[in-house]
């Protein structure tokens, strides 16, 4: 048994839902049967556990404590390729405050109560007892990872686990959406001829968002799959050059919810699309 799998099994036995991560620290992509969410997604993605298929699909939602799943042939293949272990904080009843740089760590020391801390490559994870929604970018260099999210296992850390403070709850509550906006620091190559990126044309972007809204609105069946494929298309076209705003994302979510999708399903579909594109 490789050391990563041995560690994962030990964590699962302690009640921590785990999943294999690739070398880029992201979950493995969906299998062919689940590609583009053709399977309709997991029936209950609010809780951890194995996907309905035998592979570790659907990112954080695949996290499990089941030893039979962890040792299955399909998962064994993924564990052999894994370079790290991920876990679902919300499934373990904890919240990770991900502090991405020294300034964020300094802020936490001044504003949050001491708790279990784990060093990361650039900062620290401060872990609290209690779960809440996951929100990225609640303040500069600070993400909240709990429900419907995953974190990388970096060791048990030091310090005594404290209860989730009101200061963290307030940050999550104040944030307008649990959806991470498109990265604004990622650039794309200029088109041939040296012209400006067409994605930055307001008319081009507006036409793309309007078409996406219409595609969702016109769906008569397989709405969930249509929403996912539409989100995937929008992110593929506009997600890497910083064009998308929360207003654009909100329009897509509104169209999806008008077709019966819940806010949670919208967030799941958006997150799965980001994972599929390696964002």
Could you characterize the architecture of this molecule?
The protein has helices at residues 3-13, 67-70, 73-81, 102-111, 166-174, 202-217, 223-238, 246-258, 263-276; strands at residues 18-21, 84-87, 94-99, 116-119, 124-129, 135-139, 142-145, 151-152, 162-163. 37% of the residues lie in helices and 13% in strands. The chain is globular and about 50 Å long. By secondary structure, the chain is of the alpha+beta class. Strands 3, 4, 5, 6, 7 and 9 form a 6-stranded mixed beta sheet that branches. A hairpin with a 2-residue loop joins strand 6 and strand 7 (142-145). Mean pLDDT is 81; it is low at 44-48 and 176-197. The protein has 9 helices and 9 strands.
Order of helices and strands: HEHHEEHEEEEEEHHHHH
* Rg: 19 Å
Average residue pLDDT: 81
How many strand units?
Answer: 9
End-to-end C-alpha gap: 31 Å
Sheet with most strands: 6 strands, mixed
Helix content: 25-40%
Which residues sit in consecutive blocks of at least 5 with pLDDT less than 50?
44-48, 176-197
- SS element count, helices: 9
Classify the secondary structure makeup into a structural class.
alpha+beta
- The proportion of residues in beta strands is 5-15%
Principal-axis shape: globular
In terms of quaternary structure, the protein is single chain
């Amino acid at each position: 048994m490789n050391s990563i799998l041995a560690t994962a099994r030990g964590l699962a036995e302690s009640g921590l839902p785990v999943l294999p991560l690739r070398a880029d620290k992201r979950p493995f992509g969906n299998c062919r049967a689940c590609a583009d969410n053709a399977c309709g997604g997991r029936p209950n993605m609010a809780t951890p556990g194995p996907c309905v298929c035998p592979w570790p699909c659907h990112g954080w939602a695949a996290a499990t404590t089941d030893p039979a799943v962890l040792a299955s042939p399909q998962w064994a293949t993924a564990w052999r390729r894994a370079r790290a272990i991920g876990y679902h904080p919300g499934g373990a009843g904890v919240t990770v405050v991900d502090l991405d740089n020294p300034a964020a760590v300094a802020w936490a020391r001044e504003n949050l109560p001491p708790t279990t801390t784990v060093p990361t490559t650039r900062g620290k994870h401060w872990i609290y007892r209690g779960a809440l929604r996951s929100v990225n970018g609640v303040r500069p260099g600070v993400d909240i990872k709990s429900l419907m999210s995953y974190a990388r296992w970096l060791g048990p850390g030091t310090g005594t686990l404290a209860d989730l403070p009101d200061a963290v709850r307030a940050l999550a509550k104040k944030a307008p959406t649990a959806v991470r906006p498109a990265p604004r620091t990622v650039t794309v190559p200029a088109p041939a001829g040296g012209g400006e990126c067409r994605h930055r044309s307001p008319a081009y972007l507006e036409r793309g968002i309007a078409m996406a809204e219409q595609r969702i609105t016109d769906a008569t069946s397989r709405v969930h799959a249509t929403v996912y494929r539409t989100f995937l298309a929008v992110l593929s076209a506009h997600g890497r050059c910083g064009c998308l705003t929360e207003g654009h994302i909100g329009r897509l979510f509104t169209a999806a919810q008008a077709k019966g999708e819940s806010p949670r399903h919208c967030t799941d579909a958006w997150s799965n699309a980001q994972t599929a594109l390696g964002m």
